[in-house]
Design brief:
This protein has 6 helices and 14 strands. The chain is of the alpha/beta class.
């Protein structure tokens, strides 16, 4: 290589490095200066309401008083755009159907005091004494899953309560782990196939998580199939769930999974989460703050690239 060629190559490389630096600084500073599109979401899972003073680690009869505090905080302090109930609204183990209906109506009447719109995921305890249809009727919803668009944002509620052998909805059955049917997986794929930045909510988390005894446990028996759907969509900001009574943030194959504690778990009494999101269209980034309240409080913050084309399908 001649001296002239070496000089030309050096100039080209220097130019490429300079361009790369300019692009990096532009990307970083654009996040700082552009006005983000914001969304605030309340998350209140696992009220586990019951008449007993204590059931294992749960103080079930304290659910109404604790939920009143959650509703008051959302209405007066956080003022979210939407609030998601995370399932397991009643404890219901060994409870007769009529009593379970009464307890579900009573606890939901408190949740209905929210100023913000409400959406509901369903949990395994909700169907221990009642059918899925009975639970939905009391909650005033017509489907166990839903899609809600708020401006450019999308909120997806996934149903994780199906029978693994029949692929049919579970009802009036004692079970703990979730399962997502083939039909529900197809529904999920369609729901998150959008150019909108999307949050997915479910009762059971698609990742293994630590339970109240600090043991790593399975939450959805076909978790790999659920995660495979989620991992195909770069617009999924995060997946938020309850069920496991311990606040956690787990990252698997680039997807952020957040888990909220149980409202009446003695160690985390009063648990709920306030989720703040900011989308920076020019930079193509989303910032998310997951602030968890209760006796065991935690705050997690993430920023990630989101690939969308801007048509908001």
């Amino acid at each position: 290589m001649t001296r002239k060629q070496v000089i030309i190559l050096g100039i080209v490389l220097a130019g490429a490095l300079a361009l790369g630096l300019v692009m990096f600084l532009w990307n970083w500073t654009s996040v700082q200066r552009e006005e983000p599109v914001r969304l605030k979401v309340g998350f209140s899972p696992d009220w586990e309401y019951g008449s007993r003073k204590r059931l294992a680690h749960k103080l079930t009869n304290q659910a109404p008083a604790e939920l009143e505090k959650v509703v008051q905080y959302f209405n007066e302090e956080f003022q979210p755009d939407i609030v998601i109930g995370g399932g397991d609204y009643v404890e219901s183990s060994g409870v007769k159907p009529e009593k379970a209906k009464e307890q579900l109506r009573e606890i939901n009447a408190i949740f209905e005091k929210l100023d913000a719109p409400r959406r509901y995921a369903l949990g395994n305890h909700d169907m221990r004494s009642l059918s899925k249809e009975e639970v939905m009727d009391i909650l005033g919803i017509d489907s166990p899953h839903s899609v809600t668009d708020l401006g450019i944002w999308r909120i997806v509620i996934l149903d994780t309560n199906f029978d693994e052998e029949t692929d049919l909805p579970r009802s009036r059955k004692q079970y703990a782990e979730g399962y997502v049917s083939a039909r529900e997986l197809r529904w999920l794929e369609a729901a998150i196939t959008t150019d909108r930045p999307t949050l997915v909510f479910s009762h059971h988390s698609p990742v293994m998580a630590y339970n109240v005894d600090n043991v790593l446990t399975l939450n959805i028996t076909n978790q790999e199939a659920v995660r495979a759907v989620l991992e195909r969509r770069p617009n999924v900001v995060a997946v938020v769930s309850g069920h496991t009574p311990r606040v956690q943030h787990i990252v698997t194959n680039g997807v952020d999974y957040f888990i909220g504690d149980t409202l009446v778990n003695e160690e985390g009494l009063g648990a709920f989460a306030a989720i703040s999101l900011e989308y920076f269209p020019i930079a193509g980034k989303v910032a998310m703050r997951f602030e968890h309240f209760g006796r065991r409080s935690e705050t997690y913050e993430i920023m990630k690239n989101i690939t969308i084309d801007g048509n908001h399908r």
